[in-house]
């Protein structure tokens, strides 16, 4: 029913971006390897959401070039880009009063001619993606009645329904309970797509991602596989926290143990 997913790489070279006169990103070089699950990390305000929006062409960069595969993202027709890259923003609202299945079907828009109705195939793809996020039973509920975590999972189903090669997710697990967070991360990890996700939970990033990019004050502070990126020095420099980093004996992936900060009396 769904096509066989195939990822594409994403590269950003020397990206700088100011929003409303505020310099937010400065000279960002990064690579999201084909088929990887790349985690975009960094403290609050480091520029993660802004970078994801810039990569997805929601605005004009001051400088720099972004490529999906060998194509310049800023030169692709919008519809062609939407067939290749799906973005799920943080707190992305869908204001119109739609039913859940109709929200998911919005993902088919780049695949249809204007004003063309949903086909049986479109609906089958949308239902299948709702099943994958465990929400098929809510297909006919009104969107506005869903919980925050349910809305987040519907947005992922909508993005998957777009059948992109690159999935860009801004904090996809921030409303999810631990079971659904693990389920969502495992699903995108095994999707066959290239995935770039901003994440705050560093241990989840260590467990699922094969590549990391760490932003600090609008610049790339480190990038590479989790076992190279997660060092006590990096965590102290970027997050201002003390932590021990162990390698899990079975998976070989890093696990971070944070030390509670001293609180003045
Ligand atoms: N329109 C704007 N005008 C002024 N400053 C902005 C604007 N949008 C973002 N910023 C600032 O840019 C910086 C980066 O914001 P961004 O949302 O990209 O960070 P983030 O790393 O995603 O943060 P968080 O982890 O808190 O979600 C922040 O300091 C933010 O206040």
UniProtKB/TrEMBL annotation:
This is Histidinol-phosphatase. Signal peptide: none annotated. InterPro entries: AAA+_ATPase (IPR003593), ABC_transporter-like_ATP-bd (IPR003439), P-loop_NTPase (IPR027417). One of its GO terms (molecular function) is ATP hydrolysis activity. Pfam families: ABC_tran (PF00005). It comes from the Bacteria. CDD domains: ABC_Iron-Siderophores_B12_Hemin.
